[in-house]
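Researcher: I'd like a candidate sequence for this fold, 676 residues long. If you have to choose between options at a position, lean toward the conservative one.
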């Protein structure tokens, strides 16, 4: 009877361990969760009724060990040494050249590259398949016994092989691996902790370290950790392995989680080097943090022969990528004034190497961003620079505060001109509304000449700053007076004859830009390209627009009271009226071209929406055709839509048009209507 039960318990242990392995390690379950629960619960019941059947490798025993008083020291069977680094293909080649010198010429070398997991080194001992001891790396020679905590790691095999088809267990096996917390688990854990305890954890690695070194295994169990195994430290009574690639596969066969998906075997150094160079792009997409690759000479006999220099093996090297995140000190917060007078806080940082460059500045977006994250001057902050994006400050590390940090708030006056700063209800931004503020002036000039507006080649921020500083440009209309200052320009540093001529030519050419670009370029608050177009299509000219009022602007579809208010206020300022007058005088386009007479505008007052792919017209061409004929094109189908111009692969707009009873036209229909 007890034999039967004992047999059943053993079967259940094996089944549960196997299916957990399929689920957690291979990510390929063979049974569903409910079936798994039935097995697990049966085992639990059996053990509850017959505690003598409980074994240390039972899956029920992962959590539940009582808190420890402290950790017992463990001497490693072999020193757990570290690695040298290479950060470029050149350094990788230099590493290879260093050991090649010690080998006979023409020696064939195979390599293995594996992710360098950013976690905590653990050393796992197995006696005839049973997990008996797990230790931290410690100082490399002596670590601490954290067996109870490691049992809670779901992917760590408590007994090997995990699967019946696996090789028989060696009599003794010591494995080196990395315990880590996945990015997803970290995010979940962090969110949970923040709402529950208001506590912040800095990164997955520190969180995993805290969990592993917790005296209470129940706490470790509540912080889901994972494992990657990558090195055999000792092996007795198992297979004879010839190299690292063999070892990785053997570990995987025994049921250890091994990162074979991102590991490669190379018989050629150049291919290895190319892999190292390209793998950096993959790294950010991994579900766990890796700070590089570990490159190893595959062959164990060669490894033995190459040995160590100091604490680093000659046969392995860490190929590291610049980290996308780093810690540094926030030295100050300065405020910059933008084109529309928006005040933007910017972080002045102690220079730090992150994402491949050294940065000393990062945007803080707006005052709310600073407030919400409680970012203080003097804080140690986490900065991130991924790819080409502007560096960001993610958060302060509150744990590292000394008490000398200073809270920051938006100044009450503009740091450049000293005028009072305002904030509109419902907006995050603070503004300096002094239109003569020199900071704003530079930004306004910059914007006026930029690609989205007048598109003046050879005129950028540098020139804007210089001309403002020299007093040559006090408003955008002054740009067109620059030809009068040719001599002065030639006297400026870096302005040779050719350069001045090109610039003046580009300025002249910009006079042909359509009126909508001129209006956009003025940088009126809330008036971008689309709004400028809506306004001018309605009013046709600056003169009409300036003469109108808020109420009539608000009549235009797409123009709300906020925009109308801002435009009316801008034109209401005498200085601005003067700028418009001077721009007109300089010969800029201050009106849309004359429209065809009403008889030639068959689509007058008709609103179109375009959807799908038309047989011959591009969307822009169709829009132009409709506008020429007096019609209007908007983005979405509504009660105001007269026609839906639909091509192939028209989507939901077609259904919506049908529902609202909006007529649908093909390109052919429209051509017929317009006799084209
Ligand atoms: S091999 C002598 N392989 O990176 C062999 N280490 O300085 C040295 N690490 O803390 C270790 N992933 O624990 C190796 N696939 C991997 C690794 C790896 C992460 C850690 C290692 C150590 C550091 C190396």
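Model: Candidate sequence:
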């Amino acid at each position: 009877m007890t034999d039967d039960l004992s047999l059943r318990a053993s079967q259940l242990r094996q089944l549960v361990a196997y299916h957990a392995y399929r689920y957690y390690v291979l990510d390929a379950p063979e049974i569903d969760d409910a079936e798994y629960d039935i097995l697990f619960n049966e085992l639990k019941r059996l053990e509850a009724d017959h505690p003598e059947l409980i074994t240390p490798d039972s899956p029920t025993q992962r959590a539940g060990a009582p808190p420890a008083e402290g950790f017992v020291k463990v001497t490693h069977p072999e020193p757990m040494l570290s690695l040298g680094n290479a950060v470029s293909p050149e350094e990788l080649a230099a590493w290879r050249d260093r050991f090649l010198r010690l080998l006979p010429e023409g020696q064939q070398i195979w390599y293995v590259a594996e992710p360098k997991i950013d976690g905590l080194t653990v050393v796992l001992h197995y006696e005839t398949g049973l997990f008996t001891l797990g230790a931290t790396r410690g100082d490399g020679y002596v670590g601490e016994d954290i067996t109870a905590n490691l049992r809670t790691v779901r992917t760590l095999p408590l007994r090997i092989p995990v699967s019946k088809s696996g090789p028989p267990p060696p009599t003794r096996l010591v494995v080196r691996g990395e315990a880590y917390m996945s990015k997803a688990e970290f995010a979940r854990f962090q969110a949970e902790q923040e709402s529950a305890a208001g506590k912040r954890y800095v990164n997955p690695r520190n969180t995993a370290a805290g969990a592993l070194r917790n005296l209470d295994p129940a706490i470790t169990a509540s912080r889901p950790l994972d494992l990657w195994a990558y090195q055999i430290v000792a092996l007795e009574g198992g297979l004879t392995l010839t190299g690292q690639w063999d070892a990785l596969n053997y570990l995987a066969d025994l049921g250890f989680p091994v990162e074979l998906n991102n590991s490669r075997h190379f018989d050629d150094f150049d291919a290895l080097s190319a892999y190292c160079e390209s793998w950096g792009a993959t790294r950010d997409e991994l579900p766990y943090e890796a700070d590089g690759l570990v490159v190893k000479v595959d062959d164990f006999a060669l490894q033995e022969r190459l040995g160590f220099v100091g604490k680093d093996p000659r046969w392995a090297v860490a190929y590291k990528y610049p980290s996308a995140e780093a810690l540094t000190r926030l030295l100050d917060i300065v405020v910059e004034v933008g084109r529309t007078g928006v005040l933007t806080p910017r972080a002045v940082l102690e220079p730090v190497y992150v994402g491949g460059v050294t940065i000393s500045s990062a945007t803080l977006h707006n005052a709310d961003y600073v407030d919400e994250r409680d970012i203080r001057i003097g804080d140690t902050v986490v900065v991130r620079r991924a790819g080409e994006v502007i560096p960001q400050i993610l958060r302060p590390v509150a744990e590292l505060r000394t008490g000398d940090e200073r809270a920051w708030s938006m100044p009450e006056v503009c740091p450049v001109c000293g005028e009072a700063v305002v904030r509109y209800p419902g907006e995050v931004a603070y503004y300096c509304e002094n239109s003569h503020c020199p900071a704003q002036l530079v930004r306004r000039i910059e914007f006026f000449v930029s690609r989205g507006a007048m598109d003046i080649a050879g005129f950028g921020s540098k020139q804007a700053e210089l001309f403002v500083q020299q007093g040559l440009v006090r408003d955008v209309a002054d740009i067109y007076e620059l030809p009068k200052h040719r001599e002065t320009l030639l006297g400026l540093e870096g302005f040779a004859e050719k350069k001045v001529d090109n610039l003046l030519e580009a300025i002249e050419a910009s006079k042909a830009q359509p009126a909508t670009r001129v209006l956009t370029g003025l940088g009126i608050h809330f008036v971008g390209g689309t709004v400028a177009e809506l306004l001018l299509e309605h009013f046709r000219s600056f003169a009409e627009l300036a003469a109108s009022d808020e109420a009539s602007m608000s009549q235009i579809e797409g123009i709300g009271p906020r925009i109308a208010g801002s435009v009316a206020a801008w034109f209401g300022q005498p200085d601005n009226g003067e700028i418009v007058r001077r721009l007109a005088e300089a010969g800029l386009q201050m009106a849309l071209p004359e429209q065809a007479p009403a008889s030639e505008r068959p689509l007058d007052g008709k609103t179109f929406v375009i959807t799908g792919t038309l047989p011959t017209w591009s969307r822009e061409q169709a829009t132009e055709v409709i506008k020429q004929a007096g019609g209007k094109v908007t983005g979405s189908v509504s009660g105001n839509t007269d026609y839906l111009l639909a091509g192939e692969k028209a989507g939901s707009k077609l259904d919506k048009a049908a529902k609202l009873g909006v007529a649908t036209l093909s390109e052919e229909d429209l051509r017929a209507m317009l006799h084209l």
